[in-house]
């Protein structure tokens, strides 16, 4: 795929949210074998979802930010730390910078909510990607949906 023009935005409209869920379905459920019943959860309703779309409207990637109580349950109880999750980029869009753009958009959403850091649970194969974006791993490796993960954090 050659250079592709795309935009990243907060998914506020129902069609944008549906596009986010479709990307997650393709990447996590179909490609990685994550059971559908654990991919979608109660946190989706209150999360900030971001969506990357090609200029012709084709969705390329998504991610979400949990904040408040939902994030505190995942990050050790600190209400000032957001939780980045469900970051997914379609196979066709990998290598275009979409993942990094989504992470930066989620960080901006966290800053705008007064958060001081962002935590995430990275699949171990993606540790280098997040490290290049300033995240540092902490704690032991753990399984999530049968996939090895590590906790990571970046101060904002």
Task: Explain what the structure shows.
- The protein has a seven-stranded mixed beta sheet with strand order 1-2-3-4-5-7-6, sandwiched between helices.
- The longest helix is centred in the N-terminal third of the chain and has 18 residues, at 14-31.
- It contains five helices and seven strands, in the order E-H-H-E-E-H-E-H-E-H-E-E.
- The mean pLDDT is 94.
- It has 156 residues and is α+β, with helices and mostly antiparallel strands.
- 32% of the residues lie in helices and 35% in strands.
- It starts with 5 loop residues before the first strand and ends with a strand.
Topology of this structure?
Blueprint: E1 6-10, H1 14-31, H2 36-39, E2 48-54, E3 59-66, H3 69-75, E4 81-89, H4 98-112, E5 117-123, H5 127-132, E6 136-144, E7 147-155
Parallel strand pairs: 4-5
Antiparallel strand pairs: 1-2, 2-3, 3-4, 5-7, 6-7
In short:
The protein is an alpha+beta fold.
Please tally the helical runs, counting DSSP H or I stretches of 4 or more residues. 5
> Largest beta sheet, briefly?
7 strands, mixed
The count of β-strands is 7
CA(first)-CA(last) distance = 33 Å
Order of helices and strands: EHHEEHEHEHEE
Tell me roughly what share of residues is in helical segments: 25-40%
Categorize the overall geometry: globular
> In angstroms, what is the radius of gyration?
15 Å
Which key terms come to mind for this protein?
alpha+beta; 32% helix; 7-stranded mixed β-sheet; 156 residues
């Amino acid at each position: 795929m050659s250079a592709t023009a795309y935009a990243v935005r907060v998914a506020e409209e129902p069609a944008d949210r549906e596009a986010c869920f479709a990307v997650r379905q393709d990447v996590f459920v179909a490609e990685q074998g994550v059971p559908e019943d654990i991919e979608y959860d109660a946190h989706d309703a209150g999360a900030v979802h971001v969506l990357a779309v090609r200029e012709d409207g084709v969705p390329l990637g998504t991610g979400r930010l949990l904040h408040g109580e939902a994030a505190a349950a995942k990050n050790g109880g600190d209400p000032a730390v957001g939780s980045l999750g469900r970051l997914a980029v379609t196979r066709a869009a990998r290598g275009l910078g979409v993942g990094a753009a989504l992470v930066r958009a989620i960080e901006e959403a966290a800053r705008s909510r007064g958060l001081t850091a962002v935590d995430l649970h990275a699949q171990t194969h993606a540790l280098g990607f997040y490290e290049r974006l300033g995240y540092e791993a902490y704690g032991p490796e753990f399984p999530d949906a049968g996939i090895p993960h590590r906790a990571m954090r970046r101060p904002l």
